[in-house]
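Long-time lurker, first post. I've been practising inverse folding by hand and with some scripts of my own, and I keep getting stuck on stretches where the structure tokens seem ambiguous. Below is the full token string for one chain I'm working on. Before anyone asks, I'm not after the true native sequence, just a reasonable design that respects the backbone. If someone could post their per-position residues I'd love to compare against what I wrote down in my notebook.
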């Protein structure tokens, strides 16, 4: 028995008409009977192509302002009947149900309506009922019925239809059915997430997955599910890798902390900042960020909080780097940066990142709110006798922003709005501090009057003692240890200023 089935009748009911004309004309050329509703019916008539109104099948008009059009046994019987089932055939004749071989639907744009900021009434009206039912019915009966579930599949269906001289194979119908159920499940997930406020239920759906060259390592497969183009425009360079994307995510989260600052430039490696500075010009911000760790900067991710000009681009061009990101580039700067064939250049759009973070864990996922707390001067609680100058407080807040976006355990050392060094991802906070001090010294930095930020409290006074011996005189930390008084006492005895924020910034 052949799996190739010809199409003799079609039901077409779509929201967007773009791209529909070639299909309708191809169906008409093959003598296909076309059924339709509302605006789609009018569209087909305006093409000069005969079309039968669905109400002529159902003997029932559209009602409730168009909420009920296709929901009728004669429509769903025509879609769901099994052509090799004798009893189905008898019932089709008994009830005068027409065969429907093809269903083309395009659901109401629920997600776009939500994103537009429309009222709840408008959003609810964009919950498709008839369309989603038609889609599921046709997909369920893929052995006999063809489903085209969205505008995105118009070209694929037309390719199948033309290459098979007006028919489709079982394999092709099954491919389209799978796409239909993807559309259906994605649509319902979006509706659920809009309404859900109290249910502890995790549902996410992405319909635009991209296969990457590989995962974290070449022997691992990798995929990205998301709307990259909503956040970036890629102006130049090779295809992004799995590791590029992780580094870019870290870079964007970091630079957003400095969105409203003077020109700020950051250099990241393996998700952590190895250089960052705020200056009066972008060129100087880049140069001072690079000075923080010129060794780690090789092959790094570069990001700026404002436009990159030609002077900055000339300096960047001396460095091998994977990615350069900024809200804008001058034409001259872009031409210079494009001189390296594989260098990825991205413009960062003004968008909000998701307010929830998700990661796999064991046989499930962990979900948490984004760490949206940024330490401010108003949050600071002076816990020592000695206070700090305004310049030192500015440095504390600068260091705290970096600390928040660096892998725990972490210590950040800063001076004059420049990252001097950081200790990242250590199992001991003491080790993180020692690593930072050693690194700062290796690049010629004088730690006298530098500030120190910690992502979590000090359980013992050892860190403030080590910092003091290195020349650091001001400290910012969350506080909250049962032994806070030991650290405070050491600071008071050694003329060190220390501030508590009350907010821990672990980042695992």
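-- Answer (accepted) --
I ran through it position by position. Result:
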């Amino acid at each position: 028995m052949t799996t190739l089935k010809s199409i003799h009748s079609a039901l077409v009911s779509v929201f967007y008409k773009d791209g529909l004309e070639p299909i309708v004309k191809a169906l008409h050329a093959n003598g296909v009977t076309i059924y339709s509703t509302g605006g789609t019916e009018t569209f087909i008539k305006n093409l000069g192509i005969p079309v039968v109104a669905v109400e002529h099948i159902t003997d029932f008009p559209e009602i409730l302002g168009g909420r009920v059009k296709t929901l009728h046994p004669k429509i769903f019987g025509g879609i769901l009947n099994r052509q090799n089932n004798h009893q189905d055939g008898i019932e089709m004749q008994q009830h005068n149900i027409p065969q429907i071989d093809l269903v083309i639907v395009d659901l109401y744009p629920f997600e776009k309506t939500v994103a537009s900021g429309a009222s709840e009434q408008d959003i609810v009206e964009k919950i498709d009922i008839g369309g989603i039912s038609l889609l599921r019915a046709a997909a369920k009966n893929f052995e006999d019925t063809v489903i085209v579930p969205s505008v995105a599949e118009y070209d694929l269906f037309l390719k199948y239809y033309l290459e098979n001289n007006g028919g489709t194979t079982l394999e092709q119908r099954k491919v389209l059915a799978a796409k239909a159920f993807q559309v259906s499940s994605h649509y319902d997930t979006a509706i659920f997430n809009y309404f859900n406020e109290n249910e502890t239920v995790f549902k996410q759906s992405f319909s635009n997955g991209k296969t990457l060259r590989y995962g974290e390592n070449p022997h691992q497969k990798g995929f990205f599910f998301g709307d990259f183009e909503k956040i970036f425009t890629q102006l130049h360079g090779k295809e992004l890798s799995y590791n590029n994307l992780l580094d870019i995510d870290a870079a964007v989260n970091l630079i957003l902390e400095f969105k409203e600052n003077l020109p700020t430039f950051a250099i990241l490696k393996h998700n952590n900042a190895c250089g960052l500075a705020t200056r009066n010009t972008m060129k100087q911000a880049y140069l001072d960020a690079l000075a923080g760790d010129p060794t780690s900067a090789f092959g790094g991710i570069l990001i700026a909080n404002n436009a990159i000009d030609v002077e900055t681009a000339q300096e960047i061009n001396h460095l091998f780097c994977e990615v350069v990101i900024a809200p804008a580039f001058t034409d001259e700067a872009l031409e210079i940066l494009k001189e390296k064939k594989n260098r990825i250049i991205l413009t960062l759009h003004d968008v909000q990142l998701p307010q929830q973070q998700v990661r796999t864990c064991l046989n499930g996922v962990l979900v948490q709110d984004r760490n949206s707390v940024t330490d401010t001067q108003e949050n600071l609680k002076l816990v020592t006798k000695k206070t700090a100058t305004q310049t030192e407080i500015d440095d504390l807040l600068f260091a705290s922003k970096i600390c928040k976006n660096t892998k725990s355990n972490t210590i950040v050392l800063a001076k004059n709005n420049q990252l001097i060094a950081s200790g990242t991802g250590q199992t001991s906070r003491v080790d993180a501090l020692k690593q930072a001090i050693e690194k700062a010294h290796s690049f010629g930095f004088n730690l006298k009057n530098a500030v120190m930020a910690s992502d979590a409290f000090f359980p013992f006074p050892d860190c403030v003692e080590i910092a003091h011996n290195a020349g650091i005189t001001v400290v910012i930390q969350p506080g909250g240890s049962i032994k806070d008084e030991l650290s405070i006492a050491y600071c008071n005895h050694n003329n060190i200023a220390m501030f508590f924020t009350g907010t821990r910034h672990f980042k695992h």
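A couple of notes from the structure itself: The longest strand covers residues 272-278. The chain has a mean pLDDT of 92. Happy to go over any region you disagree with.
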